Amino acid sequence: MRKDWRIDIACLGLRMALGLVLLYFGLQKVFGLFGGPGYAATVDQMGTMHIHPLLANISIIIESLGSFLLVIGLLTPAAAAAIAGNMAVAMFFNLKAPGALDSLRTGTPPGASMGLFITILMTVMALSIAAMGGGAYSLDARLFRNVKKK
Fold it and tell me: What is the tens place of the pLDDT at every residue in 97-128?
């Protein structure tokens, strides 16, 4: 049975959307690009949220390297699973933020709840990518196409 090409396009679209958005934020955290704080300031900022520096470093690496791997489609399921875990933790911290769910109750503009909704969306996208893999338009497909599936 021939695989439907639309699934590969969907995989590519999901990978690019999530990967490029997270790469933008990752480059802010690592290099201070696009008005970001840079590496040391990001670790310090995460420290104010009581996140251990080791975990802050792991989070920054997952967000920057993992998003790059998604964009190029290399080690896609592992990168996506790591990003899903990272976004789940971010979701938890956004849920604890003051006013995180106020817009649901009051109907006012999202404000603080936007961070929660975006992390929920990114977590679901990453889990979907982890389940589907990189698709035909990925380095995974090029490098591992001769590996037999059991």
Answer: 776 676 666 656 555 567 788 899 999 999 99
Are 25 and 63 a contacting pair, CB within 8 Å? yes
CA atoms lying within 13 Å on the CB side of residue 33: 8
Contact 128, 115 (CB under 8 A): no
pLDDT digits (tens, 9 = 90+) for 34-75: 999 999 999 999 999 899 999 999 999 999 999 999 999 999
What distance in Å separates the CA atoms of residue 65 and residue 61, rounded to the nearest whole number? 6
Q: Look at residue 98 and give its three-state secondary structure.
A: coil
d(CA 129, CA 44): 31
Distance CA 81, CA 43 (A): 22
- The C-alpha atoms of residue 136 and residue 145 are separated, in whole angstroms, by 9
